[in-house]
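check these tokens.
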Amino acid sequence: MCVAMAMIGNPKIVFLDEPSAGVDPISRRYLWKCLTAATSTGKASMILTTHSMNEAETLCSRIGILIKGQFVCLDTPRNLKE
């Protein structure tokens, strides 16, 4: 899996584009668990693009929303939902 290759060498920043697109639900949860574990130590950060708000809420502590290439908001998932 490409995500596993991105994690080789314990990088400080990992860029992911639609990491769980086209993945079945069981594999998606496993992938999310692995990504959360990799970044939970605070030694690595993850920047990802996704169309799935569920994925963003699960994996991200802050979410930025772009419209036509411009940031319209940047906040925590909880504050964005409110």
Remarks:
- The mean pLDDT is 87.
- Residues 12 and 42 are 9 Å apart (CA to CA).
- The chain has one domain: 2-81.
- The longest strand covers residues 70-75.
